[in-house]
Design brief:
With 258 residues, the chain is α/β, with parallel strands linked by helices. It has 13 helices and five strands. It has a five-stranded parallel β-sheet with strand order 2-3-1-4-5, sandwiched between helices.
């Protein structure tokens, strides 16, 4: 029969060994916590932004898998608006339609000295902002936890349009090394030689868009200082670690220490 002292000794030994065992078996303690606690609060919203090649989609899908959230790519909302070409033309908004249908890195002349923050990319974010906000509010009101990801997510614009909640997290993924970003864009293009050539041609434009996104992200503090945000430099971080950082932040938001 095990006495109390022996029991406590065994318990202490397990408490010492468990973290190492979890790491060795590649088990994330947050996965266990969320599984037994029934997941994150209903209606929790995560917005992942960043330029091409930083791992937004891969990360969002990993989080979706881990936390069981719904997933929306903002490009799908842009495609929905693009499908209404006839309405744009009837309203005399051909320029607006052309802005929507063009990938951000192809907007404007890449050799232009025009500030990217004042370009059509910003207009694209402004057009999509109210749409993203409306969809996000619907999911929030319906208690449907959802991840939104895309280059056109502007936290500043979403907050201006009325999206603000305790259970909203904005995430900015960034790659600070040009060669790493080039390699990732090559992989993103895969065997599509023409797409790879376009990425290489407009790499400077893509980097400038990244700087604009960073600036927009930093400006959140001026609008709503208490908003939840997370900046991640994932130049060298694998997706697994990026995912864990985000889940850890979600846990901190949902269970703040008193």
């Amino acid at each position: 029969m095990i006495n109390l002292d022996n029991f406590l000794s065994i318990l202490t030994l397990f408490a010492t060994l468990i973290p190492g065992m979890l790491a060795f078996l590649d088990i994330n303690i947050y996965d266990i916590i969320y599984k037994f606690k029934g997941g994150i609060p209903k209606g929790f919203l995560i917005f992942i932004t960043g330029t091409n090649g930083v791992g937004k989609t891969t990360t969002a899908l990993k989080i979706q898998e881990k936390l069981g959230m719904r997933y929306i790519h903002v490009n799908a909302l842009r495609e929905a608006l693009r499908s209404q070409e006839e309405l744009f033309m009837k309203a005399g908004d051909e320029a607006l339609y052309n802005t929507l249908k063009t990938p951000p890195y192809l907007l404007d002349n890449p050799d232009s000295s025009q500030n990217i923050a004042d370009s059509d990319f910003q207009k694209q974010c402004e057009i999509l902002g109210p749409v993203i906000t409306k969809v996000a509010k619907y999911y929030y009101d319906e208690n449907l936890s959802t991840i939104f990801e895309g280059i056109n997510i502007s936290p500043k614009i979403l907050i201006e349009k009325g999206l603000s909640s305790l259970f909203v997290l904005f995430v900015n993924l960034n790659v600070t090394d040009r060669s790493v970003l080039e390699n990732r864009l090559d992989k993103k293009a895969g065997y599509n030689a023409s797409k790879k050539a376009v990425f290489r041609k407009y790499i400077d434009k893509i980097i400038e868009i990244g700087k604009t996104i960073n600036k927009d992200f930093e400006s959140i503090d001026d609008k709503v200082p208490e908003i939840n945000k997370l900046y991640i430099d994932n130049t060298t971080l694998p997706v697994k670690k990026v995912t864990r950082k985000i889940i850890k932040e979600v846990k901190k938001i949902c269970n703040p220490r008193k």
